[in-house]
């Protein structure tokens, strides 16, 4: 009997060692290209926490999920998306005092691949009294860490509204100060952070800038935070004893990782990108006009003193055709056309506001800066296609195909003149946008296209490149200036974007990439606030 028990115990140890060896053999080699954390301190003493993480798997099993550490037990999961805009499954994977969110990939990350993800949460109990600075509240934050190097660590803390730079104390010197929506933001960055290095970033500010609260005794706070760990310790002792008494061989399952990705918001139309690239409302309307002209959905009965448009017969039901379906902003625009052909300023303003809200919703969780750069590159690529087309016919065709993107370039006139410097422009009778522009440039046009049946129209004359460039520039400018009779009424009807209100769910979803240049110094102080430490880990 004694011999049997000894053999059983020996077998147990061997199985444990074998499992451990298998786990080690199945580990991943990976690193974080960047880990960006952005924190909004809310009036209700919660924080909205945004993580933007890029991870590269060098070798090892596929990665199916990643655990993102949370600084406190009381957190609410917001959104998780990948870089293609897919919403990912995010769940609470906390265990004892190890608080974390698990975000699952739609498809596994394989060796040699890089994935980027974005996760927002709302965390309560973060803002505490600062013992070192009486009359102040504050927090100390440690970004979630992994058993891997972080090439680029950035932290941005957006302080409550009204806090000014001279009021702020920090635990370490900041690298820069920024302003977001009128709120002071403190920024830090660290490069090549080695595994095991857990830098802390603390802020302290006058308590009147957040709501008052009741403090708890340290012992109560301790047990509230750590009683699960104490309970787990007791259970672990019982389990270890039970293993050596009655061990069962269980199949080993390979550890899995998972991450969620977020970066550039692809798939926006040129009209939607016009808002993102900060075009004025009248310029956005001009983009919509040209979008409808390209679809041959409208025609201009007159252009001065304001536009008078006619909806073409196939589009009078405002749904479009099978070949040319209408987008939401085009439908709204057609609904803004009065019976006399003029545009209703208030309905047109609502068109712009709805487009603005739609684009902002599409940007939720994406990096705005990277997305703007992406669409600027699309504009540059559109010009490249035009400039490399070669013949007048191909260049003219490329210009037609890329028109809406080309119009987003503030230098469209000079670029057009360069592209057609040695070429003539060859319009097609089907290009309503060109004949619309032609009427702007020629008060008494010598050529009148057959709008009702373009296929029966005579071949239009070519036009020198320089004249064509002036034609387009003049038409776009005049359309922007004459889009409505009362520009002031139109402008006043556009309600400014409202600031997000803090709530138990994360109020902040968009990413501003937590990126800034390091230039400023700060007042350094010892901040004895709530420490927010959270390990992520993979697998």
Which terms summarize this structure?
539 residues, 7-stranded mixed sheet, 13 helices, alpha+beta, Immunoglobulin-like, 2 domains, 5-stranded mixed sheet
Topology of helices and strands:
Blueprint: H1 2-25, E1 29-41, E2 47-59, E3 63-69, E4 75-81, E5 90-92, E6 100-109, E7 114-123, E8 128-129, E9 136-145, E10 150-158, E11 169-170, E12 176-180, E13 183-193, E14 201-206, H2 218-245, H3 270-276, H4 281-294, E15 298-302, E16 308-311, H5 328-335, H6 345-362, H7 368-387, H8 392-401, H9 403-406, H10 412-419, E17 424-425, H11 432-441, E18 463-464, H12 465-482, H13 487-493, E19 530-535
CATH homologous superfamily descriptor of the largest domain: tricorn interacting facor f3 domain
In terms of DSSP E residues, the strand content is 15-25%
Q: According to CATH, what is the class of the largest domain? A: Mainly Beta
Shape call: elongated
């Amino acid at each position: 009997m004694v011999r049997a028990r000894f053999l059983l115990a020996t077998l147990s140890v061997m199985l444990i060692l074998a499992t451990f060896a298998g786990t080690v053999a199945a580990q991943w080699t990976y690193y974080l290209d960047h880990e960006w954390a952005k924190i909004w301190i809310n009036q209700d003493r919660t924080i909205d926490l945004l993580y933007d993480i890029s991870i590269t798997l060098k070798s090892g099993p596929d990665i199916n999920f990643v655990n993102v550490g949370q600084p406190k037990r009381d957190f609410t999961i917001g959104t998780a998306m990948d870089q293609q805009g897919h919403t990912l499954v995010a769940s609470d994977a906390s265990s004892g005092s190890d608080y974390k969110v698990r975000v699952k990939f739609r498809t596994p990350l394989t060796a040699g691949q890089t994935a980027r993800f974005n996760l927002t949460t709302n965390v309560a109990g973060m803002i505490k009294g600062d013992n070192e600075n009486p009359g102040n509240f504050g927090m100390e934050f440690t970004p979630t860490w992994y058993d891997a190097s972080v090439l680029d660590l950035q932290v941005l803390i957006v302080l409550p509204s009204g806090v000014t730079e001279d009021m702020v104390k920090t635990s370490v010197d900041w690298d820069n100060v920024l302003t977001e929506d009128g709120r002071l933001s403190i920024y830090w960055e660290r490069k090549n952070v080695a595994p095991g290095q857990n830098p802390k970033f603390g802020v302290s500010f006058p308590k009147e800038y957040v709501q008052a609260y009741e403090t708890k005794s340290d012992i109560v706070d301790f047990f509230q935070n750590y009683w699960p760990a104490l309970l787990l310790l007791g259970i672990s002792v019982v389990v270890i004893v039970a293993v050596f008494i009655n061990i069962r061989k269980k199949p080993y399952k390979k550890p899995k990782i998972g991450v969620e990705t977020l970066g550039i918001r692809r798939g926006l139309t040129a009209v939607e990108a016009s808002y993102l690239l900060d075009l004025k409302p009248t310029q956005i309307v001009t983009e919509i006009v040209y979008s409808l002209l390209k679809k041959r959905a409208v025609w201009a009965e007159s252009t001065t003193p304001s536009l008078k448009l006619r909806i073409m017969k196939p589009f009078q039901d405002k749904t479009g055709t099978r070949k040319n379906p209408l987008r939401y902003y085009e439908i709204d625009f057609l609904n803004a056309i009065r019976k006399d052909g003029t545009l209703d300023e208030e309905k047109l303003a609502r068109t712009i506001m709805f487009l603005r809200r739609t684009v902002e919703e599409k940007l939720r969780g994406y990096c705005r800066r990277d997305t703007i750069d992406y669409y600027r590159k699309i504009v540059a690529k559109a010009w490249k296609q035009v400039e490399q087309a070669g013949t007048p016919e191909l260049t003219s065709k490329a210009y037609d195909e890329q028109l809406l993107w080309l119009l987003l370039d503030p230098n469209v006139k000079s670029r057009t003149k360069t592209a057609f410097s040695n070429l003539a422009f060859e319009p097609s009778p089907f290009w309503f946008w060109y004949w619309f522009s032609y009427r702007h440039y020629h008060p008494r046009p010598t050529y009148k296209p057959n709008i009702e049946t373009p296929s029966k129209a005579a071949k239009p004359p070519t036009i020198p490149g320089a004249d064509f460039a002036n034609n387009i520039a003049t038409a776009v400018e005049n359309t922007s200036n004459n889009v409505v009779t009362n520009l002031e009424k139109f402008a006043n009807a556009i309600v400014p974007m409202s600031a997000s209100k803090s709530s138990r769910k994360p109020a902040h979803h968009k990413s501003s990439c937590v990126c800034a240049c390091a230039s400023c110094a700060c007042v350094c102080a010892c901040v004895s606030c709530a420490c927010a430490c959270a390990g992520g880990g993979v697998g």
